[in-house]
Specification:
Layout lengths: L1 E5 H11 L4 E4 L7 H11 L6 E4 L3 H13 L5 E4 L1 H6 L1 H9 L5 E6 L13 H4 L7 E4 L3 H16 L7 E6 L7 E5 L3 H7 L26 H30 L6 E4 L6 E6 L2 H14 L4 E6 L1 E3 L3 H8 L4 E6 L9 H9 L8 E6 L9 H15 L7 E3 L10
Parallel strand pairs: 2-3, 4-5, 5-7, 6-7, 10-11, 10-13, 13-14, 14-15
Antiparallel strand pairs: 1-8, 6-12, 9-11
């Protein structure tokens, strides 16, 4: 069935189709529509689940941890400052190996207060042990949520996952979405059968005290699970394509085979970049696009395979690590360490706080990269569409 829906609605529909048992939630713009829609589904009898209303995002993740630990399939949603308030609990959910799935309306962090899109919130949580997926459109938001449950609950993984969808660009914008039939989703995603649960009849301890004699082994096990997730993600993406006909990859190339400059993007801006690449190809420019869907685990080897032949990589980062540059730029640069053949890699900071990313910005990035390729003194990091006369010291 096709419907024209908002991104938040799409993630709520995915939670309903996944037959989620518990949804702890605290409202925050731009993710509030998720728990609102879940409450409607429950009130209308369309969804058999518990909506747990809590006093903060920290409490929402705490409740999600408790529900998942007793064997429930759990989903929630948040954004921006809410995700940061959860930060302590993110590590606990991952360390306890609980397959919680969370939709995150990617929103800038204050100060100054800003409710529009960038990726700083989820990027700041990339070391918490959660898998991270980024949607380009509302269809991807729904599909990635469904696949995230299957990946997270796989016994080779057992790690939580977050699905990022850009604030307002996706969360509040309506697009045509193909909503799969419940019977097919049930076949794709059977009921969650946890390996271990908190049960008074079979007492055990989750997240117990870890001494120096054991803590590193727990962290190694957690890291190994994230490594195994690479193969599981590919398996689930393949199964999803076979059942629903839509193809997903951890990184998706577009016109990269003979490209001299490959632009790397993530999230909704990928559509704009794709259109710019089409236009510049007509003009004879050898430009391509590589879209990242999975940031954790980071698909470094695949990125190297798909971009190693290029003269340069232009990374579009919708985040900033002050004193360094963009996080994705750092990840890609590290992936090329010890490689004999490596392209030049440049970072472009774009779209912070919801600033529009338009075709002219992509053209500027390509033109700037062309100039930098032959200039050994070129700065590796550049801010795009920033007005120097308006910068506040």
């Amino acid at each position: 069935m096709k419907d024209v829906i908002k991104g938040n609605f799409a993630t709520a529909v995915a939670a309903k189709l996944a037959r989620v048992n518990v949804v702890p939630a605290y409202p925050i713009t731009p993710s509030t529509l998720f728990p609102e829609q879940i409450s409607e589904f429950i009130a209308n009898g369309e969804m058999d689940a518990e909506l747990v209303l809590v006093e903060s995002e920290h409490s929402a993740m705490s409740a999600a941890i408790g529900a998942s630990a007793v064997g429930a399939r759990v989903a929630t949603a948040t954004a921006s400052q809410g995700l940061e308030l959860m930060h302590e609990m993110l590590f606990i959910a991952s360390g306890m190996r609980l397959p919680i799935v969370m939709a995150v309306g990617n929103r800038a962090l204050s100060a100054p207060i800003n409710i529009w899109c960038d990726h700083q919130d989820t990027i700041s949580a990339r070391d918490s042990g959660w898998m991270q997926f980024y949607a380009e459109n509302n269809q991807e938001a729904l599909d990635l949520m469904l696949m995230a449950f299957k990946i997270a609950e796989d016994r080779r993984v057992l790690l939580p996952a977050m699905v990022g969808l850009d604030a307002f660009v996706l969360t509040h914008t309506i697009e045509p979405v193909d909503i799969p039939e419940q019977e097919k989703v049930d076949e794709f995603l059977p009921p969650y059968k946890p390996l271990y649960t908190l049960d008074p009849q079979r007492p055990m301890t989750f997240g117990s005290f870890g001494t120096p004699a054991h803590y590193m082994e727990f962290k190694k096990s957690q890291t190994d699970a994230m490594e195994r997730a690479r193969g599981v993600i590919d398996e689930v993406f393949s199964q999803f394509k076979e059942m629903f006909g839509r193809e997903y990859n951890q990184v998706t190339p577009f016109m990269t085979d003979d490209a001299d400059i490959i632009i790397v993007s993530m999230g909704s801006m990928s559509g704009t970049v794709r259109e710019a690449v089409r236009e510049m190809r007509k003009e004879g420019k050898k430009v391509g696009l590589l879209k990242i869907t999975t940031l954790r685990p980071f698909p470094g080897k695949k990125i190297v395979e798909l971009t190693g032949h290029a003269r340069a990589i232009a990374v579009m980062d919708r985040n900033i690590s002050p004193g360094f540059g963009g996080a994705v730029f750092g990840e890609i640069s590290a992936a090329f360490i010890n490689r004999e053949r490596r392209p030049k890699i440049y970072d472009y900071i774009v779209g912070l706080g919801g600033r529009d990313i338009v075709l002219e910005d992509i053209r500027h990035i390509v033109e700037s990269t062309e100039k930098k390729i032959s200039d050994p003194s070129a700065e590796p990091v550049e801010w795009v569409n920033v007005h120097p006369e308006e910068v506040i010291e």
